[in-house]
TrEMBL record:
It comes from Enterovibrio gelatinilyticus. InterPro entries: Adenine_glyco, DNA_glycosylase, Tag. It holds the Pfam family Adenine_glyco. PANTHER family: DNA GLYCOSYLASE SUPERFAMILY PROTEIN, OS04G0501200 PROTEIN. NCBIfam families: tag. This is DNA-3-methyladenine glycosylase I.
């Protein structure tokens, strides 16, 4: 069974690739989780974040947006001592900030889903890459998402992170044309 080459580094990567990556996500909690995990990855490998994913879920109350938005300084201090997550003060504080901003977006747009999917006009962009070298780090859509989110005050939402987020949540299908997952789940 042929996969995208990046997924062949570990069994954890394979399972993530085979079951999640590129599958359209429309649940606000799941979209928030992936936003935080993609931001946490900045400067690290995705495998590192996957290994810490369960620790993140436990540490951040399963990414319940309202709960995370209410975290105070004492909870943040506790998180910064937790070896199950990336203990970066900017990233932890950014998670709380982003949760508060997701609540604002939900009030304005009805859901975080409606907000983030607007950048791809509500349906997945299906690319036709033959090699990983063909895949861009950013696109006009990720540039637009990044700019809009930064304007609202979101943290760790540069265009490269936004593009990885779009790939992870199925807004963009960047499976290689030779991958068995190519074309699967598109349009959900």
């Amino acid at each position: 069974m042929e996969r995208c080459s990046w997924a062949n580094t570990s069994s954890l990567d394979q399972v993530y690739h085979d079951e999640e990556w590129g599958v359209p996500v429309h649940d606000d909690r799941e979209l928030f989780e992936m936003l935080i995990l993609e931001g946490a990855q900045a400067g690290l490998s995705w495998t590192t974040i996957l290994k810490k994913r369960e620790g993140y879920r436990e540490a951040f109350d399963n990414f319940d947006i309202e709960t995370v938005a209410a975290y105070d300084e004492s909870k943040i201090a506790e998180l910064l001592l937790n070896p199950a997550i990336v203990r970066n003060k900017l990233k932890v504080n950014g998670t709380v900030t982003n949760a508060k901003l997701v609540l604002d977006v939900q009030k304005e747009f009805g859901s975080f889903d409606a907000y983030v999917w607007q950048f791809v006009s509500g349906k997945p962009i299906v690319n036709h890459w033959e090699t990983m070298a063909d895949v861009p780090a950013t696109t006009p859509e990720s540039d637009a998402m990044s700019k809009a989110m930064k304007k609202r005050g979101f943290k760790f939402v540069g265009s490269t992170i936004c593009y990885a987020y779009m790939q992870a949540t199925g807004m963009v299908n960047d499976h290689m044309t030779s991958c068995f997952r190519y074309g699967v789940d598109v349009g959900k």
